[in-house]
Amino acid sequence: MKKILYAALLALTSTGCFRNSDLNIDPNRSITVDPALLFSGASTQFSLLRVGELTWPVALMSQMWASGGRWGLAQAQYDQTRIRSVWGRTYTDVLKNLEVAITIAQSTQPVNTNAVAQCKIMKAFAYSQTSLLWGDIPFTEAATGTVDLPKFDKQADVLNGCIALLDEATAQIDPAGKGIIAPNDLYYGGDMTKWRKFANSLKLRILFSMVDADPTKAAAIRQLLAAGNLISATTDAMQFQYYNQPGRQNPRFSFTAIFRGGVQSDWYASKVVYDLLASLNDPRIPYFFQAGPGASANEFVALNTTEGYTPKSSLVHMNLLKPDLPEVSFSYSEQLLLEAESIARGFAPGGFDLATQRMRAGVRASLVSFGVPAAQSDAYANQLPALTAANHRTVLAQQQYLDLFMRPVEGWVQLRRSGALGQEIPAMTTPAGAPVAGLVRRLLYRSEEINSNPKTPTGLAVDTPQWFDK
Q: Percent helix, strand, coil in the chain (nearest 5)?
């Protein structure tokens, strides 16, 4: 697959991750950098990595999208080369810039605690995402500028460290104070009330990724929900806005515009997603997919791995590849569905009646976000089966997977935590011709890291489960 070029959209800075050096510094020139600019650059890079470099391989690994009849493990193995740059750019262009921004913000008097909090929240977001993609990663010794060969911390320690970062950040926030504001806060424009809500919801997501491997996290989930102050409306959603302007367009659109002349011809309806939607009579089908060039207007045909592409194969809808489509980091629908799971699993009070209410509200919010009319969304959500002890894991996992259709990083985590190994929801099989027996469960460390840092874990295959993946 061709390498996507994002020259006009890439980072404002590219700070190294090695030891600090005094070489080539002009003593007559100020080296003080505004933390807000570093934060803006880090945020831009992080969104570009999520919506660009990571989307296609991860969407294929989680079998959310299909491509050329090779979706799943075989395609994911092929696409490991596409994501090699994500590792380095996350550490240099995102985490290093956030670390420098925190150092500068803490050195000023008075300390801008809100700016520090915003940077810590983004650090927790970036580190938790990186760990849930790769497993053990550099954390305690990373991005400091003082350690050349950082150790790889265990995944449980990284995720616990991210929770600690979020706790520190929320404790520092002064909703009445001023932090990093627009135009440099590209998510919330400096609204610290919303930053606090996102931090708490991100903490909830991380706790859910851990709870099956560490059941003690159930109590933390209960406490967090009881305290409240989480994402509670669509206007609280954490998202990075793109625009229909040259250099500011969603990278998914840019790829199609640059390499395919604006004609979507790469990403198809996977059989896993389509079959699930069809089995549920879900109204999102014509919003997720558009008919192939050989099909009638309302004819949908999933791409399957045995026959491969046909002119009737349905494509991912161009409305989901629009130039101004925002990159969503945390949605209201995700929050509601996590709350439903919390209640249904007994982590929070309310019983199955309340869990069902939350689930239906979450599905409704998801449908509306994809463009399904409100009345149709209401009717569909209200007829979903009530949650019970027997069905709640399956019903909720199905809806969570579908809700994350355009957010493959979160969707892949959701899939892996949805059931015991080999019992994930929805059920998947390894494609024929895949290089290993199991489904993809991790990204591989890039060869440059293995060759340069002897502390890099070795001997792992793409189907080796991570710590959280029980």
A: 50, 5, 45
Work out the number of other CB atoms within 10 angstroms of the CB of residue 243: 12
* Owning domain of residue 287: 266-321
Same domain, 64 and 167: yes
> Does residue 277 lie within any of the structural domains?
yes
The rounded average pLDDT for each run of 10 residues, N- to C-terminus, in the chain (470 residues) is: 33 35 43 88 97 88 75 47 82 97 93 97 98 98 92 98 98 95 97 98 98 98 98 98 94 90 88 96 98 92 75 93 97 98 98 98 98 98 98 98 97 96 91 77 90 95 92
CB atoms closer than 10 angstroms to residue 421: 13
Q: CA of 391: how far to CAs of 215, 383, 388, in Å?
A: 21, 15, 5
| CB 441, CB 462: distance < 8 Å | yes
Assess whether 57 and 127 both reside in one domain.
yes
Cis before 426 (ω within 30): yes
Judged by DSSP in three states, 329 sits in strand
**CA–CA distance, 424 with 421 (Å, rounded to integer):** 7
Is residue 276 located within the same domain as residue 163? no
294 Cβ contact partners less than 8 Å away, ≥ 6 residues apart: 310, 311, 312
| DSSP letter (8 states) at residue 13 | -
CA distance between the termini of the chain: 32
Mapping DSSP to helix (H, G, I), strand (E, B) and coil, where does residue 460 land? coil
Please say which residue of 306, 321, 336 terminates a domain. Answer: 321
**How far from 38 is each of 118, 248, 454, 456, CA to CA, in Å?**
12, 18, 30, 28
> Is it true that the peptide bond before 110 is cis, omega within 30 degrees of 0?
yes
CA distance 91 to 95: 5
Q: Identify whether 303 is part of a domain.
A: yes
172: domain CATH number is: 1.25.40.390
Of 290, 321, 352, at which residue does a domain stop?
Answer: 321
Q: What angle do CA 441, 285, 402 make, to 5 degrees?
A: 30
The torsion region of residue 10 among left (phi > 0), alpha (psi -120 to 50) and beta comes to: beta
Question: By C-alpha distance, which of 434, 370, 335 is closest to 74?
Answer: 434
- For residue 327, being part of any structural domain is answered with no
389, 390, 396, 402 alpha-carbon torsion, rounded to 10°: 180
The amino acid occupying position 306 is T
Buried b (16+ CB within 10 A) or exposed e, 359-386: bbbbbbbbbbbbebeeeebeebbeebee
